[in-house]
Amino acid sequence: MTPRRCTRRLRADGARVVATATLALLLAACGSPPRPSQNPAQHSASTLAQAGARAWARGDAAQARVLYERALAAAESVEDFDLAGAMLLNLALVQGAGGDLAGAQARVDRIVAAPQRYGDALVARAATRKALLYLDAPDPDAALAWATRAQAACAAPCALDATLANLRAHVALQRGDARAALQWAAQGGARSEDGTAERANALRLSGRAQRALGDHAAAASALAQALTIDRTLGLSDRVALDLVAAAENESTRGDAAAAREFYQRAIDVYLAAGNAAAADALRPRLATQR
Amino acid sequence: MFSATTRLALGYSSMLMHAFSRRALLRVPTVRSALMRQIQVTGVQALPYVLVVALLFGAVVVTRALELLGPDDDTALKAVVWGGIRELGPLITALIIIVRSSVAIAAEVALMGLRGAIADSHWRDIEQEEEVVLPRVLGAALSAAALVSCFQFVAIGAALVASALTLGTAIEFELDSFLTTASPLQVPLSIAKGALFGAGIGAIACYHGLQVRDEVGALPKAVVAAGAGSLTFVLIVDLMAIVLLVT
Amino acid sequence: MSTGPAAEPPRTQSQRRQIAALLILALLLAITLAGGIAYQHGALTTRSHVYFLADDATGLSPGTPVRMSGFRIGKVAAMQLQPDLSVKVVLAIESEPFSHLKTDARAEVVREQLRPAAIDLRPGSDEKPLSEDDPQVAFRKRGTLTEIAEDLRTRLAPILDDVKQLTGTARARKDDVDAILQNLHALSRDMAGTAQHMNALTQELRGRVERIGAQGEGVMTEANRSLVRVGNLIGQADRSLEAVNARLPGMLNKADSALTSLDAVLRDTRAISSAAAQGVPGLMRSAGPLIDDSRDTLQGMRESWPLRSMLPAPPPAALPIDSHDPAALHTSAPR
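ok -> C-alpha cells follow
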C-alpha cells in the first residue's frame, strides 16, 4: 500500500464514518421519544383497544365488543384502571347502541360505584354516558339528573360541557321548550371546537329549536352549517339527520318543493349508507309533500 | 108588617091580572096612544142612557174580572163575564127603568088622581082603570124587553172588544169563544125576564099611584113606595129565577 | 058632519117611527145574538151521531165538547146507562167530519189538569168508512196527570223497595263487592292479554299454515318433478348398468395393478409424515415469537419518522362521548 493510497483510503473511511454518524444522529433525532414502558398486558390491552376502535369505526359492533372485552380483561389483570375504565365506557357505548341498555348501564355503574379507583375524570365521563343512556330509556328526568352529576364531577375546563349542554337542549326540545333548547344549544356550540361533531350537533339542535320558534331563515342557516361539518367529518347518519331537519324546516315554512328535495337527499344518503329501514321510514313523509 | 106585605103583593098581582085580562082594550085608540106614549118615555128616551151604561158595563166587567182572576184562567173569565152579562143585563136595565119610569108613572097616576082626572067613581069604571094601568104595564114590559135586548148586545160587544184588547187576542177568537160558551136559550130568557121586570115595575108604580086620593102629602110616599116596591120586586124575581135555574 | 079620520100630527108620527125603530132594532139584535149562538152550537147545521161504550163515563156530561184535529166539531148529546152497566155516550158532530171516520175510529177522553174534559175523536186509518147504521167508535180513556202519576207510583213503589233492599245489601257487603270487582278487573286484564296472545298465535298459525300450505304445494310439485326425474334416472341407470356389466371385468384387472402402485405410494407418504411430525411442531413453536418480533418491528417502524407521519394515527383507546350517541337522537321520525 502506498502512502497516497493509504491517505485516500483514510479520507474515504473518515467520510463514511461521518456520514454514518450523521445518519445515526438524524435517525435518533427523528425517532419517536421513548415510550413509557408498558407491560405486556397493558400493551396487549392497548392493541386490542385500537383494534376494537377500528372494528367499531367500520361498523362491526360484534367484533368491537369482543375486542374491547379482551382489552378490559387485559387491563384489569394488571389493575390499569384508566384503561379498564375506558374499556368499560367503550363497552357501554357498544352495548347501548345494540339495544342492551341494562348491560350498558351495568358497565357504567362499575365506574360510578368506585370513584376512588377510576378518578373524577372517568366518573364524569361515566355520569355523562349514563345520562345519554337514560335518553334511550326514555327517562329525561334521570338524564338531566345524571347530567348535573357529570357537570359537578367534571373539573373545569370540562371537555364534556358541550355534550352536556347539547343533551339538555335535546331534552328541552322534547318537552316543547324551544327557547330553552335554543339557549342550551347556543351554549353547546360555544363550548365546542370548530369543525367537531359536537359543534354540528349544537347547530342541528339550534336549527330545530329555531324552526319550532318560527325563525325558519335562522334554522336553515344553522342546519346548513351542521351539514357542512358532518359532511367534512364523514358522518353519513348525521348528514341524513341534518337533511331531514332541513326538510322539516322547509315543510313548516310552506316550501313543499324544497322539503321534497331535502327528503329525497336524506333517503339517498340512508340508502347509500346501507340503512334501508330509515330510508323507508322517510318515504311517507316525502309523499305528503306532493 | 106581614099583612102590609101581603096586601102589597096582592095589590101588585091584581094590577097585573087586570092588565092582562083587559088586553082587548088595546083596540081603543086612546089606550094605544097611551101605550105609545109610555113606550116612548120608558123605552125610546131611555135607550141612549142604557146603551152608554151597557158599553161601560161590558168593559168594566171584563177588566175587573181580569184583575181578579188573571188572564190565564180563561174558563173562569168566560164564565164570569158572560154569566155576569146574562144575569146583570136585565137587572141593570130594570134599575134604570125604576129610576126613570117607576117614579114617573107613580107620580103621573097620583097627579091624575089628585087633579080629578081619575075620580073615585071612575075607579069602578073598568074602562078608566084599565086606561091607566094597561098601557103603562104593557109599555113598561115592551120597553124593558127591548132595552134588555139592546143592553145585552152592546154589553157583550164591549166585553169582546175589551177582552181582545186586554188579552191581546183577536176579536174573532173572543167572539168564537163567547158563542161557544153561551147558550141560545139565554137570549130569549133574558128578554123574557126583562119583560117581566118591566111589567112588574109598571104594575107596582100604577098601584101606588092609584092609592093617592086627595092628599098631596101622599104623593111622595106613593112615589117612594113605587120605587122601593119595584126594586124589591126585581130583586126577588131575579133571585127566584136564579134558584129555579140552579135547581 | 063627520070628517075622515084626522091626520096624525107630525110629532105622533115621529113617535111611532121611533118606537118602531126601537122594537125592530131590539128584535134584530136578539135574533142576531141568539142566531149566532145557535149557529156556533150547530143548531143550524146538519148533525150526525156517533156513539161509544165506556165502562166509566166519569168527567163526561152532555155538552162536553168533541174535537177532531183540535177543532170543535160537536158535543156529547146524550149519555145512557146500559143493562151491563156500561155507558153509551152519544156524540152529535157535524156531518162533514163524520164522512172522514173509518171503522177503526176511536174516541179519547182528554182530561188535562185545570181544564174541562173534552173528547178527542181520531178518524182512524182503515179503508172502510164508519157505518151509518151502527156508528160505533172505539173508546180509550187517556189518563190525567194524576192518574198517570198514581199508576207510576203503584208500579215504581215495589221496584224502589227492592232497589233499597239491594243497595242496603250491597252496602253491607261492600268489601266483598270491591274484592269481586278487583278480581274481575284483574281477570279482564288477563283475559285481554290472553286474547292478544291468542290473536298473535292465531295470526302466526295462520301464516305458518299458509306457508306450510305453500311449501307443501311446492314440495308436491317438486316431488312430482323428482319422480319424473327419478324415472328418467332409473332408465338411465338401467342402461348404464348394462354398460358397466360389459366393462367391469377389464376395469377390475386395471384396478388391481393400480392398488399395488398405490400401496407403494402410501408407504412413502408414511415415511415422510413421520419425519415431518418430528420437525413441524418445532417450526410452529418458533412461528409465535417470530410473529411477535415482526409485530414489534412493524410497530417500531410505524412509530419512527418518517413512517410515523405517513401512516394514520392509531385510534384512541377510549371512544369519544357524543351527545348524539343515543338512538333517540338518531331517529328521523317527525318531531
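The two ends of chain B are 31 Å apart (CA to CA).
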